[in-house]
Design a protein that fits this description.
Blueprint: H1 6-26, H2 29-48, H3 52-57, H4 59-82, H5 88-93, H6 95-106, H7 110-113, H8 116-128, H9 130-133, H10 135-146, H11 148-173, H12 178-181, H13 184-194, H14 200-208, H15 214-251, H16 261-283, H17 291-299
Helix pairs in contact: 1-4, 1-16, 2-4, 2-8, 4-6, 6-8, 10-15, 11-13, 11-15
Length: 301
Amino acid sequence: MSLDSPALAGMTGRRARLAARAGRLVEAEWFTALAVTAIALNAVLLGAETYAGFAREWHTVLGLLEQLLLGAFAVEIALRALAHADRPADFLRNPWNVFDLAVVLCAFLPFVSENTTVLRLLRLARVIRTARFLPQLRIIVTALGKSVPGAVSFLLVGTLLLYLYAMLGWAAFAADDPEHYGSLGRAALTLFVLMTLDGLGDALYGGLAISPWAVVYYASYVLLSSFLMVNLLIGVVIDSLAQARELDEKRRPAGGGPAPAAVDELRERITAARAQLEDLENLLPHVPPQQEAVAKTASRP
């Protein structure tokens, strides 16, 4: 089939019209409200099943509601996919679409439906989908994802700091305080608790009974771990929030919020114009050549 064939052009037009209709549906406020309600009901049912007596008494009803919710989520993701019928690749470029699709499809796998624990974890993952419909929560979740590289670097630096001070503590206090510094593991656990400043006074006075250098040891450790490192982590999170907010503003239409009515009207006009052009292209092969008009034009002086 040629790329310029009328059949292919008509197919493209139908997909564009289908995508426009599905797009208006999934962007409607009532559709968003229904999706959030379904997610909230899923969370309520998941919490209700933790009560053994209630779960036994209403087992059949809870199972039926779970199947209905699963069907509703499947219809929702199918409509979102249809909204990208004319550009399927764009559907997979959105991380939320990929996440929703994975959560819904995994629930239909045989080994997942037979495993109660995995199925409950998937149902719990549906609650995270609430972030898709709440802009501020969506920004926070995006910021958490973007802060992972910085958080990993922070953990590496923190681990190195903890290792160095654990070795110093073992060398200085192991003989007199084996309960807290008798090994590298004990020293690291002690310092990890001190990172929260819990029991710092007792540790300091206990260290001073062993060596006067304990003040320098604990003061420098608290300064680096509880103040400097925490401020670095806060800086990583704030930078990630700024990046997530900027990315969210780029994805939203100009002016923020949902697309205005003028944009929807323009899309409808473009879709109608495409359909008219495709109808004209389909009619062109059936128009007979105007030989008489051509002959008269050629005979004129």
